[in-house]
Amino acid sequence: MIATVTSKGQVTLPKLIRDRLGLKTGDKIDLRLGESGETAVLIPVNLEADDVFGILKSKNRKGTVSVEEMDAGIAAATKGRRL
Questions:
Q1: Is-above-0.70 flag for pTM?
Q2: Which candidate, 4, 2, 81, places its Cα nearest to that of 43?
Q3: At the top level of CATH, which class does the domain 1-46 belong to?
Q4: Domain boundaries in the chain?
Q5: 46 touches 6 (CB < 8 A)
Q6: Predicted confidence band at 79 (pLDDT cuts at 50, 70, 90)?
Q7: Which letter, b or e, does each residue of 3-21 get, where b requires 16 or more Cβ atoms within 10 Å of its Cβ?
């Protein structure tokens, strides 16, 4: 998708991108340059603690998750992402 940069440096993100990333008015995004410096990555920063509470599934009855299980879940969820 192509977007245009205005004279003020503003860009309107296409609706498909906003919807896919769950972006709403006022949400913040993090823009990072790729390793080559020729690409940019847009990362939504609209998550709060309540938004991610309970996303890790527990296999035990107590509902608790060890630090090792948390690390494994984070690694699996972010596999292949560049930050």
A1: no
A2: 81
A3: mainly beta
A4: 1-46, 48-83
A5: no
A6: confident
A7: eeeeeeeeeeeeeeeeeee
